[in-house]
TrEMBL record, chains A, B:
GO molecular function: metal ion binding; transketolase activity
Name of the protein in its database record: Transketolase
Organism, as annotated: Aquimixticola soesokkakensis
Chain positions recorded as Mg(2+) binding sites: 162, 192, 194
Top-level taxonomy: Bacteria, Pseudomonadati, Pseudomonadota, Alphaproteobacteria, Rhodobacterales
UniProt record similarity statement: Belongs to the transketolase family.
Subunit: Homodimer.
CC annotations in GO: cytosol
GO biological process, one term: pentose-phosphate shunt, non-oxidative branch
Amino acid sequence: MDIATLREAHPDHWMRAAAIRTLTLDAVAAANSGHSGMPMGMADVATVLFSKHLKFDAAAPLWADRDRFILSAGHGSMLIYSLLYLTGYEQVTLEQIKNFRQWGARTAGHPENTHLDGVEVTTGPLGQGISNSVGFAIAEEHLRARFGKKLQDHHTYVIAGDGCLMEGVSQEAIALAGRQKLGKLVVFWDHNSITIDGAVDISDRTDQPMRFKAAGWHVQEIDGHDPVAIDEAIEAAKKSSKPSMIACKTHIAIGSPAQDTSKGHGAITAADAIASTKDAYGWTSPAFEIPADIKSWWEEVGAKGRKERVEWEARLEEQSAQRQAEFARTFAGEAPKKLSSVIRALKKQVSEGQPKVATRKSSEMVLEVVNPVLPETIGGSADLTGSNNTLTADLGTFDIENRKGRYVYYGIREHGMAAAMNGMALHGGVRPYGGTFFCFTDYARPAMRLSALMEQPVVYVMTHDSIGLGEDGPTHQPVEHLAICRATPNTLTFRPCDTVETAEAWEIALTQSGTPSVMALSRQNLPTLRTEHKTKNLVSMGAYVLAEAEGKRQAILIATGSEVEIAMKARDILQADGIGTRVVSMPSMELFAEQDDAYRRRILPPGPVRVAVEAGVRAGGWDRWLLGERGREAKQAFVGMSGFGASAPASELYEQFGITAENVAAQAKALIG
Amino acid sequence: MDIATLREAHPDHWMRAAAIRTLTLDAVAAANSGHSGMPMGMADVATVLFSKHLKFDAAAPLWADRDRFILSAGHGSMLIYSLLYLTGYEQVTLEQIKNFRQWGARTAGHPENTHLDGVEVTTGPLGQGISNSVGFAIAEEHLRARFGKKLQDHHTYVIAGDGCLMEGVSQEAIALAGRQKLGKLVVFWDHNSITIDGAVDISDRTDQPMRFKAAGWHVQEIDGHDPVAIDEAIEAAKKSSKPSMIACKTHIAIGSPAQDTSKGHGAITAADAIASTKDAYGWTSPAFEIPADIKSWWEEVGAKGRKERVEWEARLEEQSAQRQAEFARTFAGEAPKKLSSVIRALKKQVSEGQPKVATRKSSEMVLEVVNPVLPETIGGSADLTGSNNTLTADLGTFDIENRKGRYVYYGIREHGMAAAMNGMALHGGVRPYGGTFFCFTDYARPAMRLSALMEQPVVYVMTHDSIGLGEDGPTHQPVEHLAICRATPNTLTFRPCDTVETAEAWEIALTQSGTPSVMALSRQNLPTLRTEHKTKNLVSMGAYVLAEAEGKRQAILIATGSEVEIAMKARDILQADGIGTRVVSMPSMELFAEQDDAYRRRILPPGPVRVAVEAGVRAGGWDRWLLGERGREAKQAFVGMSGFGASAPASELYEQFGITAENVAAQAKALIG
C-alpha cells in the first residue's frame, strides 16, 4: 500500500501514528543525530499495540501487573519516547523530547531504564531486549503461579529488528522461550529488509518465520502498516499458548526520501526531507506540536488502563496483610530479615565444623539455607548444574507444567541465561542467580555489562575459577576474567577463600539493590580458614587481616580465593624462619577500595614487603595494592599467571606455574633481602 | 539397531570404529578425567568420513589442500587423538595417548591447534568450531577463486554437538554460511539427545533440521551408527551446492552402562564398566592395544591421500615460479616486502599534509594503500562498514557469484565474524580483519580470546573507542574494554593518536604471525601530532616521547589515542606557566612493557610528576606506569573515566567527565605543589 491508500483507509489511525513519526523527525533533527527510520516504520504497530492491547497506566508506570513493552531495537528510542510523551508519562515532557540525546536529559540516545519509568530495559546492544524479554516472561509465569492470576497476569511485548534477530543471543532466547512455551510473550519483528550496510539480503537470507517455528513459536506474517491486520495478529498471538512472533513487513523511514534505504536507518535531518515527509503524511503542525485532538486521544490511551489498575489495587488489598507485605517486599527487592540469621548460623556451623570443600560446594551450602527463606530466588545453570552447584533440594524445576519451580535449565546458553536473568531482575518480584564456568564469563559478557549499567542485582555463580580447573585446559581456565569483572563499573567481584567467606559474599550479593555480583568459586577443595566465628561480615570490608604476624611484621601476603590457603602456608614457612608475616584475605577489591583510608592503611600499612598471590594475571588490579597504598616498587612481588594455563591435573599446574607456598615465601624473603 | 545387529551388519567397520572407542575408554580411564561418550557415539561417522571421504595425508599434516576436519565438540578430544594415532600422524604416539590430559602432553584435555598438526582448531568453548568452520570455507572458496581449483579445492567437515547448536554463535555462523552458499562445508550434528544436565529435552526442543533449512542449508537425517547411511549422506552433502547438515542420531557412550545418559557424557573410569563395554564390542585386546590388522587398515587410511598430495605438489610445481612463491608466501603468512614501503610513504605524506581525521578514517587511509599490496587481506564489518571504515575501493564483495571478492558483509554478527576470522587465519592463505564498535568487543570476546590462545594474527578494527562516540550513550561507549584487551594474554592492543601512529600500528599488526591485534580507533577527528616524518616505527616501542619538556622537566603526561591531543594542549598550558612538560604517547602498553628497563627508564624517568589521561578506566593498566616504573604514589594522577559514560555530544561529555587539557594541567600543577 502506498501512503495515500494507507491514509485513506484509516485516516484517524494514520494521524495518530503520524504523531510518533513527526516527533521522531523533529527530535532527531534537533539533536542532529539518532535514528529516524525505525520509529517511522513501526509507528503503526506501536499505535495499535498501545491503544488496543497494552495494559498500562501512564500515571502509574511501575504498576506491578502492567504489560511490559521492550524496545529491543533500542536505536529507535524516539519510538518509545514519543509514546511515553503522547500518553502522558509525567517524566517525559516536551522539553525532554526537545532535549533528545543531550547531557542530563532522560531521553538518552538509547533508552535507559535508569533514566525513565516506562523504559523497562536499557537497549541498544542488539539482541539483548528480545533476550531480556524471555526473563520477563519467565518471571511473570512464575509470579502468576506464586501469587495468583489476580495479582500477576500480563503480557510481555517486544519490538525487535533484523539486528536483534541476527545476533546469536536471540537464538538462545527464542529456543529457551519455545522450550518453556512462554505463551504471554509476543515479539514483533520489524521486517524492513534494511540494515546499516544496505539490504538485509547482503548478509542474511534466513527464513525467519521458519526459524521461529523450528523453535516452537507461533508465527504470523502481516503488513506492518495495516492497523486491522496488526490488531488481529495481536489478538491471535494472545490466544496462542506458544510464544508469538509477528513478522511485520514495514517500510523503514516510510514517506521520506530515504524510505526503504539504509540512509533511512540513520538520522534524517535535512529540512527539505523532513518537510516533504510531513507533507506526505498530511501533517501541517509546526515542529514538536501535536494537534490537540490527537494529543488528547493519546492521553486517553495513557489513561485507559487506570480502571484496571485500580481494580488490581483493590484485589491486592483483599489479600491477607502478610501476603500484601510479601508481595511488596519481593517487588521492592528487599531481602527478608531471616537472611542474616541463616547466614550467621551457617558461618558459626562451618567455622566450627571446618569442612574442606570447594567454594562452589560452599556456595551450594549457602543456597541450601538461603533458598528456603528467600522464595524470590530463581536459580539456574547453563547446563552445568552439578558443576556449578546451583540447584538446591527445595527449588523444583521451572517448567511448562510447574511454573512454581524455581530452577531453570538454561541449556548451553550462557549469554541467553545472563540476558534472561537481567529480564527477571528488571521485571521485579524475583531475584535470579545462574551459573557457568568462570571462563565463560566471555560468553555472557554483553549481558553482564548490562546488569551493571542497568543496576540489576543479578548474581553470577562462576565456578572453576582458575587453573585449579585442571585437565580441561586453557580454553576453560580463566586467567584474565577477574581483571575483566573488576574493571567493569558497578560490579562486585567476590573470590571467597572458604565457606565462611562464601556465605558472607552471598549475604552481600543478596542484599544489593542496584549492583550485580560475580562469585568466582573454586573447583578444588579448600580448607576452612575462618575458624573463629565472627558475627560481623568481614567480606563487606573487601579485605581484612586473616592472620596477624607473630613478632616483627616484615611481610604482608595478600591473596584471594583458593590462593589464601597458599598464603597461609607461606606464612607458616616464613614464621618458621622468624619472619613475622601477616596474611590479608581480599575477597573483594571493589569493597576494599570503598573503605576509608584509615581502614585501608590498617590493613596495608607501610613498611613490610608485600607479596600478592592469585591464580590470575597481575592486571586483575594488583598494581594498586602492591605499588600503591603505601607500597614500594622494590618491595613487592606478584605470584600468579602471566599467560594462559595448560591441561594437566590442578596440583601439577600450580607447581608448574609456581603458584606455591614455597615460591611465595621465597619471593618474600628475597624482597626482605 | 542394537550393538549385536550393528556388529553383524558391518563386522569390519565395527572393529575399526571400536578401535576409536576403546582408545577413548583407555585414555580417559588412565587420565581419570575426560569425556568418553562423545567419541564412542561418533566413532562410526568418523570412521566413514576418514576412510572414505576425508582428503588428507597423515605424513603431510599441513598440506595446503587437505580437507579440514574440525571437532567443534572439543570435549570429545579423544576422538581426534584416536584418529590421528590410528592413521599414523607422527606427533601422536601411543605414549601421547597414554599421557592424555597430562602436563606437557600434546594430547591436551581439549584439542589445541598449537600442540598438534592435525588439530586444525582449538575447541572446547562450545559453538566456536562450527563458527570457525565458516571462515575455513570462506577462505577455501576465496583461495580457489584466486589460485584455481588445481591448488585449492577441498571440503571442511565439522562434528558439532547439541552444545554447539545451542550456543548463539552457531546461529550467526549457520546463517552466514547459508547466505554465502558455502557448499563445501559439511556439518555432522551428533544428535545424541544428551547434555550434562540430562536429556536435551529439559532445555531445548528446537527442530534443528528445520532451523538449518531456514538458514538455507541442505539437511539430511540419518542413523549415525549405520556406515552405509553415513557414506551416502556424505556423498549427497558433497553434491549439494548448499552447506550441508547431517543430523546423525547416535547413542552417547554406546555399549557402556552409561549409554544414553548424561553420565556417559563425562568420564567412564570404572574398570567393570570399561570391561563390559569392550565385551559388548567384542573387543579382546588389552588396554591401549590395537590388533595389527586394524591398525594397519587405519594406517592405509592415513596414507591413502598420499597419491593425491603428490599429484597436488606436481601441480604446484607446474605453476610459474612467481605464482609458487606467492602461494607459499601467503600460506606462510609472510607480509610482502612492499608493505613497509607503502606504510613509510603514507607516514611521510600525512606527517607533511597533517590531515585532521578520526583514526578510524586514518585506518581506512592505511587500508587503501595496504590492501592493494597485500592480496591476502580479507576485510569485513559486522554491519558497520561506513562507521568502521573497513572497506577500500579495490576489495570487491565476497559473494556467491564473486568469490574473488575480499570484503565480507558479516551482518550484525560480531561473534560470528570474529569466529569466522579465526577460521580464515587458521586455514591459512588469507589474513582477515574485521570491524565493529569497540564496545562490542563484548560480543566477540569468546572468539577474541581464542585468537590469542590459538596464536592467530587476526586484526580487530574497533572504532568509536570511547565516550567520544557521543550521543549513542553508555551502551555504546567502551570504558573498561581497553582493560579487557590489555589483560588478555598474547593480544596487542593499539590506541593510536593520529594517522602516523595508525599506520605504524597496522604495520605491526600485519606482520604478526602468532598474535592478534586490537585497533582502538576514534570516531572523532584528531589532529596529526606526528608532524616530523621518521622512518622508524615508533609504535613498535609501545611508548615514546612525543614532545619533550622545555626547561626543567617537572611533569610527564602520558596518554593514548584521542587523549594525546589533550595531553599536548595541557603541555601548552603548563609550559606557558613555566612548567617543563614531557608528553609520552603510549599507543601499546604491551609493546612498551616488552622494552628493556633502560628504554622504559628513558621514557619514564624518576622525578617528574606523572599524569595519565585516557578516556577509559584506570584499571586499563595505568597503575603500573603511574605507581610503578619509578613513579611515586603522591606524585601521580589519572584523568579518565571512573564509571559508565552518558548520552550527549562528545565535546560535552569530555567536559562533564573532566577529561580536558585544563584538568590535566591542573592535576599536574597540584602534584607539583
